[in-house]
Design brief:
mainly alpha
Length: 296
């Protein structure tokens, strides 16, 4: 490997790890803010900040990318799945489960993406991906049922974990639709338009939610909203896309599984969350299945 290729690889690895680290901080903050702001209002506030930044960046793109064009149906699908429903569902799940559990569950995301990509955009799964999906699913079952036994004394599965599973499925759908859209336009354009189309619905829902779940407006909350809107949403996504460009999708996806590791560490350090046997066993299977599936 030449020095230039090695340098490109090192930069790519650094970028995708930066992305997963910022996304882990989003999960940690979502759990920390659970009593200060409703899940819909937090998601809407996040995308208000992100949409403002994306609008400025989009002005530098070619005119074709500043229009909806023929991709409007796919962009609406991205808006509904990844903006309108995913964010509120993720933050709702974080009100009822720990950041440690939630971030471990996200490790199943790449495998769900592979399952959805086959019928939607004709990207068939390999045998290795199928095997990884089975291993990851086993880890997910252990994590959810083990967490429930510890926190609910065996009364049933943890509702928060199931909500986060639904959020991960929606994010996987958003990712698959994004692959379809970015065949004809840049990732920046696809990300920006999905935010623009989904934000009005989020704002209407947030106005209704505020009447039921008041916002505890304080400096720490405002700072956290600005951070979530800028760092995980804009910086994280941009770093990930550039990392994919340098490493390729398969090379970058191997490091996606650092998200559960970063999230577990942040939840333990900053929220004082415990890590039990179900987290360890389930997390190893989820991350291991993802790494196995992503290997070349």
């Amino acid at each position: 490997m030449s020095d230039g290729a090695r340098r490109n690889q090192v930069i790519g690895i650094g970028l995708v790890n930066l992305a997963t680290l910022t996304w882990a901080t989003n999960m940690t903050l979502g759990r920390w803010l659970r009593d200060d702001i409703g899940p819909i209002t937090l998601a809407a506030s996040r995308f208000v900040v992100a949409a403002a930044i994306l609008a400025v960046l989009l002005q530098r793109r070619p005119p074709a990318e500043r229009r909806l064009g023929r991709d409007r149906r796919w962009l609406v699908g991205m808006a509904l799945s990844g903006v309108v429903v995913f964010g509120p569902m993720l933050y709702l799940g974080l009100r009822h489960t720990t950041a440690v559990s939630a971030t471990l569950i996200t490790g199943f995301g790449p495998l769900i993406t592979g399952l959805l990509a086959a019928p939607l955009i004709q990207e068939p799964m390999t045998r290795r991906q199928v095997g990884g999906a089975i291993v990851g699913l086993a880890g997910l079952v252990i994590l959810i049922t083990g967490s429930a036994a510890a926190s609910w004394q065996g009364m049933g599965v943890n509702a928060g974990d199931l909500i986060v599973v639904g959020a991960v499925i929606l994010w996987s759908l958003y990712s698959v639709l994004g692959r379809r859209v970015t065949r004809r336009r840049s990732t920046l354009s696809a990300t920006a338009w999905s935010a623009f189309l989904g934000l009005p619905l989020l704002l209407v829902a947030a106005v209704v939610e505020v009447q039921v779940v008041p916002v505890d407006l304080r400096p720490e909350l405002l700072a956290a909203i600005v951070y979530i809107g800028v760092v995980p949403t804009v910086v994280g996504v941009s770093s990930w896309n550039e990392g994919v460009r340098r490493l390729g999708s398969s090379g970058a996806m191997v490091f996606y599984n650092t998200l559960p590791l970063y999230g577990t560490l942040l939840g333990y350090l900053f929220l004082g969350e415990t890590i039990g046997p179900a987290h360890l066993v389930g997390g190893v299977l989820i991350v291991g299945g993802g790494l196995w599936a992503a290997r070349r």
